Amino acid sequence: MSVGFDHIDTKECLARKIPVGFTPDILTDATAELTIALLLATSRRLLEAASEVKSGGWGTWSPLWMCGSSLSGSTVGIVGMGRIGEAVSQRIQSFGLSHLLYFSRNRKKDVERRLGAEFVSFEQLLEDSDFIIVCCTLSKDTNHLFNSWAFKKMKNSAVLINSSRGGVINQEDLYSALCKGEIRAAGLDVTSPEPLPTDHPLLTLPNCVVLPHIGSATVETRTAMAVLAAKNLLAGLKNQPLLSQVC
Ligand SMILES: O=CC(=O)O
User: Fold this and answer.
1) For 112-147, what is each residue's pLDDT tens digit?
2) Closest among 218, 217, 222 to 1, alpha carbons compared
3) Residue 137 near residue 4 (C-beta atoms within 8 A)
4) What is the pTM of this model?
């Protein structure tokens, strides 16, 4: 009951002739919505600000108190232009960006035409983006794609958002980059491991927002995923092809 299948040994399933189903497409919108919510929560420091209200830190008005950074006029870089990357790109258009960059396994000319996105190298995306949104799958090529080398290339003011898989980011390097001010903030809906231990250093940082992998967590989406997973299971039991089959 998920779109990702990096937690399943598909080679072994294939060898044992065990069909594997997944639930693509139906969680794209919910995950894109959550990604935008996490982006705004991180860039506008919503969690920090809300906790100031509760702790009594909200004092008299001060010009730069709780200031974040604007999406309007900014350059956004999307890493991974699959279903979710495209849905995030569509939604983010409405913020009046100056540039939408993307880096992906394959170039997507139709997305470039429809959304005005510009295909760039990973390095250029790191150097030019004010906000970077990770939407790629986890593979041997994307494992720890974001490491100390990548953080050093990014702007000091950059905000990194990840709603794909925790393994795409080297979390030790992220912690160090956030502490040293190599990047400004990070918003993670996914971590490695999950759940993230409550004493993890990232949880001590005010500029790191961590959510418990809730990308697809709307009642409508989880219900649709459950129905599709059940249909896959019933088809499998009847030795029929699954409605959506990984292998
Ligand atoms: O991350 C969520 C999923 O793979 O369904």
Assistant:
1) 999 999 999 999 999 999 999 999 999 999 999 999
2) 222
3) yes
4) 0.96
Catalytic positions, written as ranges: 213
Residue type, 84: I
Cα–Cα dist 49/69, whole Å: 14
Q: Alpha-carbon distance 137 to 241, whole Å? A: 24
Cβ of 27 below 6 Å from ligand 1: yes
Which amino acid residue places its CA nearest to atom 5 of ligand 1? 2
**3 in contact with ligand 1, CB cutoff 6 A:** yes
Residue 80's nearest CA partner among 52, 53, 104 is 104
> What distances in angstroms separate CA 23 from CA 149, 166, 239, one per listed residue?
34, 20, 19
Ligand 1 centroid – CA 147 distance (Å): 23
pLDDT tens string 35-49:
999 999 999 999 999
Q: Whose CA is nearest to atom 1 of ligand 1?
A: 4
Alpha carbon distances (Å) from 209 to 98, 127, 174, 214, 233: 25, 23, 12, 13, 36
Parts of the chain with a pLDDT under 50:
none
Looking at residue 12, what is its pLDDT?
98
CB distance 216 to ligand 1 below 6 Å: yes
Using CA positions, which residue lies closest to atom 4 of ligand 1? Answer: 4
Q: Which atom of ligand 1 is nearest to the CA of 190?
A: 1
4 lines ligand 1 (CB under 6 A): yes
Token output for 89? 């790109």
